[in-house]
Amino acid sequence: MDINISRKKKPQTRWVLIIILAISVLSVLIRYLWLLGQADFSIERNKLVFAEVKHGTFIVSVRGNGVLEPDHIQWLSAGVDAKVEKLAVKAGNFVKAGDLLVELSNPQLLQQLAETRWELEAREAEAIASNVAQEEALLAQKAKVLGAKLDYENSLLKYNAQTELLTKTTGTVSKLAYEQTRLTTEQLRQRWTISTQQRSKMEENLVAQGNARIARLNKTRRSLESIQQKVDNLQVRASIDSVVLDLPVELGQRIAMGASIAKLAEHNSLIAALKVPELQIRDVRKGQTVVIDTRNNKMQGIVARVDPAVVNGNVQVDVAFSGPLPPDARADLSVEGEIIVAEIENTLYVDRPIFAQSESQSPVYKLTDNEQFAQRVMVNTGYGSSSEIQIMQGLSAGDKVVTSDPSLWDKHQKIRIN
Questions:
Q1: Same-domain status, 287 and 369
Q2: Of 31, 61, 95, 104, which sits most exposed with the smallest number of CB within 10 A?
């Protein structure tokens, strides 16, 4: 028996899917063409950097890189030509005042010291001998003066007695004897006077020669002290409690007088020497607060000096620390510094777009609400720091702007962000 089977027709779902797909593609194409018509330039989102406008307290700061430098440095130099015999320390060692750093040698100087010492001893002996001889001669002259005085006084007594006898006209004294006595007395008086004058001159000569000997002795002593100082300087010692920054000598090296031997710096007397770009230096003033970052620690300081000169586009700013230094602080350590120029409350600010200048009018690309486009707008800026800038007019809190380099699209008023 044959059974007839009737087949049902399949619904034409294939055509329905094709139509839906075509409509979707057409919608995407229309939207794409519409977007193309909104902007002449497009760029991928991952190639851009965005920032949001904030409202609050804006800290105006200037950044600079630099190193820690000693505030007080002392160079020790050689006082004479010498040879390096011993190095007692190395660069980086901490030393106290009086510690031996380098030992030098100079045999000629030691020989000169010994000869000068012998010369001084000889001069001192000669001075003693001369003093004894002069004192002996002075005593002899005093005895001579005393003898002349006694002879004069004795003759004067005789003369006075003869004068008395002669006035009485007793005839016991002849006129000739009387005149001889008078002449002898006068001669003895003059001899006594001259002897006294000779004694005075001898005393003056004794003082003058004594002063001359003292001057020669002092000259020799000063020469000995100078040579002794040079010999002492062969032992180069630290003058202050410090750290040895440099020791530019080697064992056996011959160095000339005045050559540098050691560079010392007080360990706790460091400053930060920052290099600030010349375009950002105008707001930096002495006394402003600075935060120094050693990458391990942060230290507070103040601006102590702003160099008046510009070197290679930078200005040096010296920062003095206002507190104790951390253990890792040492000379030539690389640091970063942030100088707090001002704090402005209740203002708008944003991450600094490239090429945006302080206190000027600059073009900025602001994102639309759907963030698919960026529209070029003019913005008035105020104070600027190294990473942020104050917004005076043109943007509102919450707006997003492009901070990337706009060189590729700066001729377009609006760009599309894919």
A1: yes
A2: 31
